[in-house]
């Protein structure tokens, strides 16, 4: 049985009337990458900030290693490194100075420091810019420095808030690989993301949160397999469908569930999609409802989210 290195117990944070994190219970196992996935405002950053003792819980607590973050925050902090969602760097500094100072503070011996800095700066693609003032940097470049801090530090527990927002696709893959190697070298990684693909490819387990509450936590494959029916057919129609129409689709053989995120947009969860598809298109033809597009796919983490909330992540972000 893998042992938890972080134990979140009834963790709650209120800002006035708003409950940003709502009695969250979750265990993060030593040596895993756990992705906290949720739409904007789900409570991801607030959770991470409580674990790193930046924010104090309103109720409940978390244990980081053996330390209760509310009782022994100084000790808890010795085990963690955090990359913040919005990097705050001193504008006149250079990547080299920022990382060198960070390495010093983290107690990395001077003989090791230079080698490690060079390796990390090359990996995040900032070696040639290492002596440039960061005020000339793009948002993505500043984000790379923030993530580089963690890679220099190699903490026992790395907490990374949105590892690759604003970073281009090549940079994303490099950072994902570096996070994986950090895990392989023995760190436990807790990261927050609202990118489905990032959560899926990077996490050993994904915890989906919405409105401060944990919906489900498991490995990405099991989460997708838990969706009723093994396939998804997405149909966009030329006009809105009635409730009666929806019910008829629901009653079709092999159809397990139908989610109508917009009145003309159906997600049909079913088995053996290829066998049912002709029946579905015939049905809409008969009803004189034009089909604008049809797409067959395997379930994604978005479907898992939609299964629990009735909304896609994109829609949840708009509310
Ligand atoms: N310091 C604060 N004061 C008041 N409300 C706050 C504060 N920090 C966060 N919130 C609110 O708490 C909720 C959760 O915010 P949080 O930043 O944890 O979300 P998130 O899941 O990280 O979202 P995102 O994907 O946008 O980063 C939001 O409604 C936010 O407005
Ligand atoms: Mg956030």
Characterize the structure shown.
There is one protein chain. The protein has 319 residues and is an alpha/beta fold. It folds into two domains: 4-221, P-loop containing nucleotide triphosphate hydrolases (Rossmann fold); 228-298, Alpha-Beta Plaits (2-Layer Sandwich), CATH 3.30.70. It contains twelve helices and 14 strands. It has helices at 44-51, 73-79, 95-105, 110-123, 139-153, 169-184, 196-202, 220-225, 243-251, 273-286, 301-309, 313-318; strands spanning 4-15, 18-29, 33-37, 59-64, 67-68, 80-83, 157-161, 188-193, 205-210, 213-218, 231-237, 255-262, 265-270, 291-297. A hairpin with a 2-residue loop joins β12 (255-262) and β13 (265-270). α3 packs across α4 (110-123) and α3 (95-105) packs parallel to α5. The radius of gyration is 23 Å and the shape is elongated. The protein starts with a strand and ends with a helix. 40% of the residues are buried. The model has no long low-confidence stretch (mean pLDDT 93). Bound molecules: adenosine-5'-triphosphate (ATP) and magnesium ion (MG).
